[in-house]
Structure of Phosphatidic acid phosphatase type 2/haloperoxidase domain-containing protein:
Amino acid sequence: MSYMGAGSGAGSGAGSGAGSGAGSGAGSGAGSGAGSGAGVHSGGPGSGALSYTLTMAHDGLVGSWFGEGTENPDFPLFSAEDGDIDYLDTVSRVRLMDSELAAPFSMKKEGGKAVLSLDGAPLLSISRPDQAFFEEQLSWVRAYSDLRVDRIDEINLQINDLMSYFGGIFLLNGARRKKTLELLYTAYRLALRVEVLAKHICRAPRPIDYSLKVQPTIQTPDHSSYPSGHATEAFTIATVLHRVMTGESAQVGLKARAMPFKMAARIAVNRTIAGVHFPVDSAAGALLGCTIGEAVAAAALGKHEEFAKQGLTILEFPASDSVTGSGVPIHNATFDSKADFDLDWLEKSCIDRKTSEPKNRPKEDSVSPILTRLWCEALDERRTERKPRHVGKK
């Protein structure tokens, strides 16, 4: 069961699945490609020999047949509910979920800024700092490089695997929390699609481009340094996971320093330690990730219109007194060129979006019926409300 690399490995078949999957998730493309390309039968993968013998068995069993029907299948197939996709295999579900989410979520260039929107309503606008800003941030890259020996194993493993680190906080496996994992990977793949567009809009040089003395401990990626993709992905996962398990917003979780956000911050900082990112990259990526995660929750819970009305966050350098004529509140955020990224900054920069869980399951005529159903199934895996135990006297 692989939800990670199915998007790139699915269509190519068994032969090219492994190659195309390696870019975003090592090994995941192989499983996805085999399932949709060559075809997997009840007892194993397809082959020319199996196809031939199936034909021989057909000819031996069927005899004469003139095309008359013998069965009465369900019509429409399996379920009349648009959100029910359990009849599909993993690869087909991944394709369908990603296709449905492609419409309401967009990342576009507007006035030189990268703007994330949900169903046409802008949620986050990101400006790119100037070159002098990034040069000042080099001092942090130098300072963090002293931790490379301590973090090298984490850094390498986190190139392709973030989910295992969140699975170390809450038990995430295919038996106990199958739908939760499917939801998290759906949000993760959405973050990937959004971040690559944001990176292309911003196109900022990497630390190695500013100094020959950076010498990263891993291969520097070819795309933009800003915003950080790992920070975007990690904070998207953290936000969705925290909401599913607690019902709390990202801002509430950040204020409490909830464990998923602490893990996401560690993952983001590891990229600066490695020498491939500046702290401001992580700041923008974290803000983008939290916004994506909250937007996924709003879309799933049927609260996307209410969510969009709660405000637009504008990240600029320096912050400006932006106003809007649409009546939507503006939240201005900025980041100092001499500053390091941390959760204090992110807590202050995130809007506390009031998107509470409905008492009853949301209707599946929402912006994404498939996402709505998947979110509800993930909530069912929460089992019970979390009640932290306080040790000691009250």
